[in-house]
Amino acid sequence: MKKQAPLIDPFLRPITYLRVSVTDRCDFRCTYCMSENIKFLPKKDVLSLEELDRMCTGFIELGVKKIRVTGGEPLVRRDIMSLFERLSRHLNSGALEELTLTTNGSQLAKHAKTLAGFGVKRVNISLDTLDADKFARITRRGRLSDVLEGIAAAKAAGMRVKINAVALKGFNDTEVIDLIEWCAREDMEITFIEVMPMGDDIDDALRIGDYYSLLDLRDHIAKHFELRDIPLRTGGPARYVERIDNGQKIGFITPLSHNFCESCNRVRVTCTGDLYMCLGQEDKADLRAALRSDESNETLVKTIREAITRKPKGHDFDYDRQNVSGKMSRSMSHTGG
Ligand code: SAM
Ligand code: SF4
């Protein structure tokens, strides 16, 4: 591996965390993420597994220490285990400290053991409800039992599991305490996510109605458990509280009600190779063109370096009464949430 000067952005934040979307496809159609009739990208537009490996390797040469594979649903991409296998060489060499993924869990029962074998020690699983009917409704086509099997398989393979739940008013607000208690019993972390205004083809009115401020959610949880704020930072936007009775940590990702940008160490690459320096801004760099322009990683590295000089200080999402301002035209399934 070539040693390179590390990536430092104009605000002196070292870039050490890459989230990479490996597909725009998914076996679910969560109502806040994808429309029912979403059109997926032609295959030629999506980075091949070889290109994904080259791209990740380029970032690792530039000092990235943690890679999160996401999507769409990463585990529906054909032969995705071979990407994990390739990337595991960087874990073995010590150049990469963590390789992980965010998944809906539907295919995890099949892949958990293999992933663990390739050095994946932790997995984030998105699950908004423990009610099978509500689960079918929010995902439009998922089965809760598949996800629960996936969770069990991940734990059996020795992986730590974190549950990510999108907080939706009128949907799972009444289940929050049950979700927390379930995670405590199952020895899993839990993080709640505020719904974000993303995607062109999702009805704004629906998502504004669904918006549940995590400040309100925290107040609700505090009525059931005594909480204290803890300074735990995982390099991401989550803030944590701890239950005083049992030490359980509860995370909150509040991109809308708090600005978390000052400690941002991450960039995202879509499955088409667009590098977004900020989740909440449109500026991007075309890594697919860089990857396809020469076989060495020279153009790629140059393009990444140049892009990082344009990483903005922060984003400007805001729910302004009934209007979504700073709304992004790309959805989470495209950017890789
Ligand atoms: N399919 C995988 C999954 O669901 O975990 C990985 C990709 S998904 C886009 C990543 C995360 O983004 C999930 O936790 C999902 O709940 C979240 N997400 C999707 N759309 C969102 C939105 N509009 N606001 C907030 N979170 C969203
Ligand atoms: Fe698929 Fe994940 Fe989006 Fe749900 S949140 S539709 S599982 S990509």
Q: How are the strands of the largest sheet arranged? A: 7-8-9-6-5-4-3-2-1-10-11-12
Q: Which shape, going by the Cα principal axes? A: globular
Please state the average pLDDT score: 88
Q: Beta-strand level of the residues, as a percent range?
A: 15-25%
Low-confidence stretches: 318-327
Main beta sheet: strand number and arrangement?
A: 12 strands, mixed
Amino-to-carboxy terminus distance = 29 Å
Bound compounds, each kind once, are: S-adenosylmethionine, iron/sulfur cluster
Number of strands: 14
Order of helices and strands: EHEHEHEHHEHEHHEEEEEEHHEEH
Describe the protein in words:
This protein is α/β, with parallel strands linked by helices. Helix content is 31%, strand content 20%. The protein is built from eleven helices and 14 strands. The strands form two sheets. The chain has a twelve-stranded mixed beta sheet. A two-stranded antiparallel ribbon has the order 13-14. A hairpin with a 7-residue loop joins strand 11 and strand 12. The longest helix has 14 residues. It is globular. About 3% of the residues have low confidence. S-adenosylmethionine binds next to strand 3, strand 5 and helix 11.
